[in-house]
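Example pasted here:
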Amino acid sequence: MARRRRVASVRPDQSFKGRQFTAEVILWAVRWYLMFPISYRDLELMLADRGVDVAHTTLFRWTQTYAPEIEKRIRPHLRPSNGSWRVDETYVRVKGRWMYLYCAVDSRSQTIDFLLSAKRDAEAAKRFFRKALGQPHTVNPRTITVDKNPAYPCAVEQMKEGGELWRFSRLRQVKFLNNIVEQDHRRVKRLARPGLGFGGFHTARRTLAGYEVMAMIRKGQVREIGGRDMRAQAAFVAKLFQIAP
């Protein structure tokens, strides 16, 4: 007697189990907070205007939980970046102290990766390069354009010697070529301004991951999703969590 084949069943996503509000409401709120320069209290009023009574502290917890989850789930769906990297870092205030947000884009302004660091030195630069090289949509860079920060040549040389970076990668220290990555820095500062800084390193890291991943979507980096098609973007994020739009 032939054995019956077992039909594999898809387990429902448990990310929203136990939440008072529906997944659709939560994802809507998180997406809007990460896309537009508004505070949690502003978002609380916007939701109340639509009949959803939720405290700004709850909105904060949603963002801390789901922003990094969206970032993790979206990575495999990104279009490949090219080998012309533009790398720069900017200051971010975290609990009254200045931290450093490393960011890299390619020559088409597509985001390669980002990293929040407490220090701005060769070790931080190497951590950032390793993180960027480990992403599924990136390639070993042909050129790396940076500013005059002396940490970059040291980091690149050490990574080449260790075989972590292509030995023919060319480092260019030309500040004006990094204008496109500085545009990303201005966007992050505009989004963070209503919140008046971050209360802690991990809070900042999770929120910044959300800012960056929503920017990737709006830049059109997700395959088959237009950068200005808000409905398609919302449906795509819902699909990441196995939610019917």
Q: What stands out?
A: The chain is about 45% helix and 15% strand. Residues 1-10 have pLDDT under 50 and may be disordered. Residues 23-76+220-240 form one domain. The longest strand covers residues 84-94.
